[in-house]
Amino acid sequence: MTEPLPKFQNPPVTETALSVQFSPVRGYTAAHGGQFWRDVLGSDWVTATEAPRLPEIHERFGQNQMAGNALIGAINVNVGLGGSSSPRLQFRDTSSERMIQIQNTRFAYNWSRGANRYPSFDRILPEFEKYFARYNEFCRNLQSSELQLDQWEITYVNNFVKGEMWQTVGDWTKLIPSFVFPGVAVENQVPTSVQIEWQLTIGENKGRLHVSMLHARLGSPTGPDALVLQLVARGPIGQDANLRSGFECGHEAIVRTFASMTSKAAHEKWKRIV
Description:
Blueprint (H helix, E strand, L loop, with lengths): L12 E10 L7 H12 L3 E7 L4 E4 L14 E4 L10 E6 L4 E6 L2 E7 L8 H23 L5 E13 L10 H4 L19 E8 L4 E11 L7 E12 L6 H19 L2 H6 L5
Antiparallel strand pairs: 1-7, 1-8, 2-5, 3-4, 5-6, 6-7, 8-11, 9-10, 10-11
């Protein structure tokens, strides 16, 4: 029997995103993004901004996996089809905690921490499906055919701010017990920062989990000092997986990996209930 997924009353999640990638929408321009905001999203989405395009990324497995790449098995592709130069548009709601991002090859739904705690995956997923259904219909009417979905992606970001659960770099093992600094060759040399990434295959090539740790300042060079733990799962949409099952698979991989990486003391602070 599969053990239930770990759950926390007060998880340290600061941002999460559900995203789907698809073949370029024919005839799509930046003006269509504005039309979608004005005519479809409604008055709850109050601000719109432009951002650089997200690259098309495809997880590859088996013989197609590119060992030695910066992201093993993840290939960035610049698609030169119609509308590919249109920007990514970001729409925020009245709370500023939700954001919808669109371009002609991607739809993403983000939550970021504001006054409220993380609302849970079980609540975010139906919200994603609600708004993606609207975008899907909008694009279907534009190109007179269904979107050709090719990849799901789910991201969780956790910021561990200095002073809350750690004071020095040496305290990071109180959060992540398995973390080990490399051997120090210079006398009295103490590591001061970290930037690490691991890749793990999910199941029988159902997807890939990218786990990264970064010591950074949040927001600006003078922002809070934090250890950032990011988990990104993505995988193909095809005969063996649809969009919802992909998200559920990625969510399980992220939650179980996060719980296994972090300490019991941290779990007590986050009020683990399962």
